[in-house]
Amino acid sequence: MSLTTGPAVPQAAVDKSPDSGGKSGRARRGRRSLSKHNLTGWLFSTPFLVLFGVFMLFPIVATLLMSFTDFGARNVTRPLEAEFVGLDNYTQLFQDDKFLKALFNTAYFVVVGVPATIVLGLLAAILLNNGIDRARTLFRVGFYAPVVTTIVAVAVVWRFVLDPSDGLIASLASEVGLTAPDFLGSETWAMPSLITMAVWRNLGTVMVLCIAGLQAIPVDVREAARLDGAGAWQELRRITVPLLRPTLLYATVITTIGYLNVFEEPFVMTQGGPSDSTLTVSLDMYREGFNFFHMGYASAMAYVLFVVIMGITVLQLRLLKDNTR
Amino acid sequence: MTADTATKARTPRRTGRMRTPLLYTIASVALLVMAAPFLWMALSAFKTKQDLTASPPVWIPSRWTLDNFTALLDQLDMPQYFLNSLIVAVLVTVSNLLFCSMLGYALAKLDFTGRSKVFAIVLAALMVPGNLMILPLYVLMNGLGLIDTYAGLVLPFAAGAFGVFLMRQFMLSVPDELLEAARLDGAGEWYIFWRIVMPLVKPALATLTIFTFLGSWNNFIWPLIATNDPDKYTLPVALATFANDPNRTVGGGNGMLMAGSLLVVLPVLAVFIVLQRHFTQGIATAGLK
């Protein structure tokens, strides 16, 4: 494994170095002056950069500034009158039981949800890649369909499926003489229910990524392993998973980012309840910001979440980088 | 055991025949589980109230009815929400196709000072979660008077970093010689971009169209914030508002919700099934390049 990935890293670093400076670079440019396009390059970049600046960069900076103020409802029309309060919002956040609970719930969602999504997505990919020839498209479409559907609609449907009185699961359970718990009304079951739905909805993405990755594994590697007597489990552990590592890490990164931002599921299915057991950071931020208009406080929440996301992403990307190119 | 596996490997056809029934059974059960919520939604939308509350559950309606749809259309202005979602999604898609391709082209094919910095910005922007921006964005849009307007719903999504990244990756594979030849023939940069490069990256444009359109169609948190006037609600906002309305059960409960969900999901599923090849290719490309 290290043979294929190890030496490639420095080479990529050289290729990527922006101006590859020095004399040789300049000389090369001089010869190919035809391909230097400063004006055109910037003109082609302008529309994106303007939109990016106004609707992304500015809000990113503004959120940071707001997080140091008492920005409230009256400041929506007079933003400049918000008062600087230093780190008050942040210190308050970490004494706020509700926020700490939201942080915990979000972590719960990620720690259980991400591995489940990755494992099931990988298994679905292996299933469809080895052995299913007929109707492969049908299976692929079926497994991937939840990804593209509107999450609000899907959450509404799941709420009905999990309904304690007329829901699908409750009715099926009563038919065999069991009583299904009130999934969304129970502090114990609400979060696992949301996670199950998220796994159901997102495993298709992981599956598609893994199928692409699996198809890139040379057939002879597998053949050789089988000739050497590797069983299915050994093949999975020693061949498939190591060779898929970059794909799996990428899938883990995007799934983690998505799950850390979880909002729609609790908003539609539980509204954060019962007793805040499904309140996530994004939902807490939305409420503080747009129900109570504690926008400074909500901005601090947004930044705490952002820092967490950045930290985890950088950590995961570092792992990813060592194994690609 | 060893010998057995070895034989299997050498004769893959027989292996297939021996393992196939089991694999198909597993896959079919999994498919059924995956599809169950959709089937339940689609069938429930046509059920009468008795069937909806029946225990044990009734899968196939004993009497098919459109009452849920008529009641829903009576209470909610679904055509208007549909139109709002459509207008916003089309505008977002068109602007992304244009602006992301332009920057993607510049990043892939034009050597200009600062290019690596611009690309670094794009990569960084990929990582920033949308929720980080919504608070000041609301204040900004409010200040600009763009709350409850299409512009307010479209502008924050008019040029996404994902699109730039995707287009750049595809445009890298366009041969430089082609562009140089066109330049020597006196073609302008816009002409080269629009007439030579864009037609060559049609598959990427298809992928970007699908992802952007669906992203916009399914988008929830920003339309929820940027609209107060029900006439400007998009479909997901209208559906969520209706689902969370405490008075809803008085007017007719779950049947209407299932009918509403079906109306929201159906166009998306139809588009997906028709264009499914582009989805899987697009995700794989974005993931592997």
List its traits.
heterodimer; A: about 325 residues; mainly alpha; MetI-like fold; 16 helices; about 70% helix; disordered N terminus; B: about 290 residues; 2 domains; 17 helices; globular
Rg from Cα of chain B: 25 Å
Low-confidence residue ranges of chain B: 1-16
Into how many domains do the coordinates of chain B divide?
2
What is the level-2 CATH architecture name of chain A? Orthogonal Bundle
Roughly what is the average pLDDT of chain B, rounded to an integer? 84
- Written as H for each helix and E for each strand, in order along the chain, the element string of chain B is HHHHHHHHHHHHHHHHH
Strand content of chain B: under 5%
User: Major sheet of chain A, described briefly?
Assistant: none
- N-to-C order of helices and strands of chain A: HHHHHHHHHHHHHHHH
In CATH terms, what is the fold-level topology of the largest domain in chain B?
MetI-like fold
CATH class of chain A: Mainly Alpha
Computed structural class of chain A: mainly alpha
Number of helices of chain A: 16
CATH class of the largest domain in chain B: Mainly Alpha
Ranges of chain A where pLDDT stays below 50 over 5 or more residues in a row are: 1-34
From the alpha carbons, calculate the radius of gyration of chain A and give it in angstroms: 25 Å
CATH topology of chain A: MetI-like fold
**Morphology of chain B:** globular
The largest β sheet of chain B comes out as: none
Give the mean pLDDT of chain A.
Answer: 82
Measured distance between first and last alpha carbons of chain B: 40 Å
Question: How would you describe this structure to a colleague?
Answer:
Chain A is mainly alpha-helical and 325 residues long. Chain A has helices at 2-5, 8-16, 22-31, 38-66, 88-93, 97-129, 136-148, 151-161, 168-175, 190-215, 219-227, 232-243, 245-260, 264-269, 281-291, 295-321. Chain A has one domain (87-321): MetI-like (MetI-like fold). Chain A is built from 16 helices and no strands. Chain A is globular, with a radius of gyration of 25 Å. The two termini of chain A are 12 Å apart. The relative contact order of chain A is 0.12. By secondary structure, chain B is an all-alpha fold. Chain B starts with a helix and ends with a helix. At the A-B interface, α4, α6, α7, α8 and α9 of A face α1, α2, α5, α6 and α7 of B.
